[in-house]
Structure formats: structure tokens, C-alpha cells
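[worker-b] picked up task from shared queue
[worker-b] task type: protein-ligand structure
[worker-b] ligand name resolved to pyridoxal-5'-phosphate; SMILES cross-checked against name lookup, match
[worker-b] sequence length check passed
[worker-b] input payload:
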Amino acid sequence: MSDSTRNSNKHIKLFIPGPTEVSPDILNAQTEWMIGHRMPECAELIGRIEPKLQQVFYTNKRVLIAASSGTGLMEAAVRNTVGKKILNTVCGAFSHRWRQIVEGNGIANDVLEVEWGQAITPEMVVERLATGSFDAVALTHNETSTGVTNPIQEIAAAIRALPNGDDIMILVDSVSGLSGVRLEFDAWDLDVALTGSQKAFALPPGLAFCAVSDRAMAKAKSIPHRGYYFDFLLLDKYLQKNQTPATPAVSLLYALDVQLDRMLAEGMEARFARHLAMRDSAIAWAKGHGFQLLADEAYASPTVTCLANSLEINIPALNAFLRGRGMIISNGYGAKLKNKTFRIAHMGDLQLTDMEELFAAMDAFLAG
Ligand SMILES: Cc1ncc(COP(=O)(O)O)c(C=O)c1O
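[worker-b] inference finished, payload out:
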């Protein structure tokens, strides 16, 4: 499909934290001829995808593929691995979602909450886990509402160093992190790390992926009611045949196959470095205009920058102005942060030149 067929005059460049920009060739990849999910062509497709996903997750373990958004696999993570009680670590609106999910599933839980904008530290987590009553902890790699990246590697190491550390399931939501922010599933000894297609993967929404450790698979066997659609054991059984138990989102799998090639051709290290460079450009722009980061700079996210609206600019007016120039950023998320903060996302396939284009437009707005 050509860009003109796609109604490119409606294209608004997305500097929002998902969905993110999707390249025309990736959009086009979705228009391949349809295949049945029990045909060998589909098994070949999943067979091509799986080793590439493993590289992106830095794992030799299984990476399950679901036709859902990230929230589906958050629910899967808790339903498959929590037998006793889970500690939810909350530092913003999306980490709060873990709490909502476990409550909705009637799973015993406790909350460790810090002021929104702060990070969760290893010390806080192990202090709470030391009571011995938990068998799982829910972590958020990249809190999209505040622009904070939590130190998952350090938190996981501190958990594993506890006397019962190997019995604790470490569940990581990296919906707005993975592939833009470093996450090494095996080396960091995580149990579940999940993400969605519409963020740093720069794909349309509709797919979610999660790496699952052998420890988590063994734990799932001991949980009687894991549900059906997101049952890790069933998903894994089918994945071994390069299939999914239910009908997969075939068109999105075509796009994923091509996008993974592009991601690995860039190289994960280069991809992380590009995201850091875009993050630094956003921080420099903010500082240059007297905006403060909501996050402590040491934890500033490589994929989304959340700025306190200290100059009290009219954010809807800014976005209306930006739309006129074919781009959009995000207001703060939720009642607590809307208009008090705003967010500039820099994830997926965006480049520094895109950031420069955005900052020039924002400068023009601020200049009045
Ligand atoms: C950190 C985080 N977790 C979870 C979600 C929910 O993901 P989804 O909308 O893909 O279900 C989001 C969405 O923005 C997010 O940013």
C-alpha cells in the first residue's frame, strides 16, 4: 500500500507513550495473504519469530505470544504464579494496575507504595519481603505515568539474596520499556517479563509477549485454576509446536516478523543507546526552558520523559498547536498528574531528528 492510499495527510507523528509510530513497511507487512493457524506456513512464521523474540528479551527461555494488549499478560502472570500472596510495588498509575488486577482475581496482596515520581528501591522491596509471607512480587520496569525506570536488575538481585529468594516469583511489567530500555531476562534471573507490541516495539497494538522462567513454569503446575486463554502451560505446549492454542493475530505476526528483523539489524545495544540519546535530548530541552523532571534524573526513563508543568503552560493548547504541525505529545496521566505534568515519549523507531523537529515546534509554541 502506498502512503497516498493510506491517507497520509492524516498522519500525526506520535510522541505519546503508545501506540507509537509504525513505519510504512511494517504497516504494509500486515497485508500479506491470510493463512490458517494450523497451516505449516503459520508454524514457519512463529518458528521464525520465536528465536528473534528471545534475542530481544535476552533469554533462552520461552517467550509466549498472546493476542492481547500488555494487560492480558499482567493478568496471566499473577494467575499462573501466585500461590500465597503478592507484593505490589506502586510508583504510579500503571504499577497501580498490578494491584487492580490481583484484587480483581481475588489474590491475597499487599502494597508497597512510594510517592508518584519516585523509584522503587531494592532496600524497600527486600524489607517488605523479609516478612516471609509473600511468594511473588510485581514490579514495573518503566512507569509510563511518571517517566521513572525502576532498577529491576538490582531489585531482582536483592530478592534472590534473601534466604527464601528462589521461592519468590519476580514479575516484571516492561510494557513501555522492553526493547527501548535494557532488560536481560536470564542474566537478571526474572520469572515473568512482559510487554506489548504498541510501545518500544513500534508495532500496531494487539500483541503481547512474555518471557517465562522454568521456575515460573514449575510454579504454574502447582496452581490449580490458571484460567484457559492465558494458561502458561497450554501456551508453552503449543509454542513448542510453533503454534498458539487459540487463533493468533496473524497479520500482526507478519508485521512482528519484519520488525524483529529491523530491530536486530539495528542491534539491541544501538537501540538502547538511541533511546538514551533521545531521553537526554528531552531532558536538555526541558532544562533549557526551566521545566523540572518529575523523576529523579538518576531514574529518568529512556522511553518517556514526564515534566512537571512548572511554567503552567496550557497543555491542550500546546497539543492543538502541535497537531497543526502534524505531531502530538501526551498530557499527564490520570487525575493526579493531568495538566500538572506532560509527557514526551521517545520510543520505538523515533530518531533524534524527530525529537529536534518536535522541540522546534514546542519552541515556536512557547515563543507565542
Ligand atoms: C507500564 C505499563 N503497564 C501496563 C500498561 C497497559 O498496557 P496495555 O494498554 O498494552 O494493556 C501500560 C500502557 O500504557 C503501561 O505503560
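[worker-b] attaching auto-annotations
[worker-b] The longest helix spans residues 268-289.
[worker-b] releasing lock
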